Amino acid sequence: MTQYEYDFETVTTAVEGYSLFGGAGLSTDGEYRNIIRRRAAEGWRLAACVPTHQMTGGWIDAWDLIFEREL
After folding, report:
1. d(Cα 65, Cα 58) in Å, to the nearest integer?
2. Which of 7, 11, 55, 64 has its CA 20 to 30 A from that of 48?
3. What's the confidence (pLDDT) of residue 23?
């Protein structure tokens, strides 16, 4: 039976201004791409991403990237 270990990294978004029509712009700095590439080079596989914090306006501003690899 194959066993796996799991590790987590949190990625956050930033609000970049508000629209006259009531919207907010959200962005990441693209660091999640570097995290995924680095983890892949270390033998990890991206298994999932889970929202971990949601603002009252409805947008999600933090995600956990979940990585797995065989033991």
Report:
1. 20
2. 55
3. 61
